[in-house]
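As noted in the main text, all predictions were made from sequence alone. Below is one such record, for Twinkleprotein.
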Amino acid sequence: MKISIQIAIAFTYQRNGALVSCKYRDITKKFWQETNTEKIFYGLDDIKGASDIIIVEGEIDKLAMEEAGFKNCVSVPDGAPPKVSNKELPSTEEDTKYQYLWNCKEYIEKVSRIILATDGDPPGQALAEELARRLGRERCWRVKWPKKNDAESFKDANEVLMYMGPAALREVIENAELYPIKGLFNFKDYFQEIDQYYHKTLGYELGVSTGWRALNELYNVRMVMNRNDVPFQIDAIHLVLELTLSQVVPGELTIVTGVPNSGKSEWIDALLCNLNRSVGWKFALCSMENKVREHARKLLEKRIRKPFFDVRYGESVERMNVEELEQGKRWLSDTFSLIRCENDCLPSINWVLELARYAVLSME
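Prediction:
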């Protein structure tokens, strides 16, 4: 009888301390698993009762996270798919590729924050998307792997640990960002545009002269842009009938009404700034009438109490400087989520409320 001896690392998959399965890796990085065993996360017992967890793509990445001080981490057992499926999500019984999620449901169903630290290559990003689809995007966060050089970034947790050390890996996890949700944005997604607006590099920020100097102090013609900032018409008069909602007391609905251009939005923006200053509340904004950069200007002026531009309404007050602008941008990013309809579909009340729910969960 011939006995074959092979040197390999054994990764034991356990639940409540009991061995469920085992995965092996030899010195050539070849993997194999025991057959006919239940699929579960590697490191499952480490997330029992955790409110925040990290999901990585391989057992070595799980161990790398432990070196960085994160024991609340698990690895998927089967690696990543080549691409995101374009099919509807299957039922839990038919979801064979991701059966490990449903086998570990009791461990993850009450988790409030899930950091997806999958590999930075296309399959790794596809895995993150498939996990987010099943776990709920509203409680998922994603990492951004640091740059290795000008052309490429580090691929995974183990690479960051090996080349940059545990402190760098901790920083990656601590700086994880909310997983993208269609229609939900943050002001920092628009920082470049806000900077261009402040430095007046977009063109016609203050409007175009009418040709009458006496009228210019009261009115300038503004170009109306499409979503790609291409002018398609010039409006002399633009009347907007609006209904603005603002939650002043938790659980209550406040409706502010008035004739067009009576200052409803300006008043509500000022109210939000006051509430943030006094009690630290954060807000989700759904303003269909404002471009993001214009809404940012209005909020920053109320926060900093200086004009965004050197303009007549600022009277003798000096324009906010670049340092104040940067501080204000950080405040915008920390305080507000943006609900925006960026495609040709008309928004609905249910669409707004669903994104508002996601925004609240992301702020917790």
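The chain has two domains: 8-178, 184-363. The radius of gyration is 26 Å. These features were considered when defining construct boundaries for the mutagenesis experiments described in Section 2.9.
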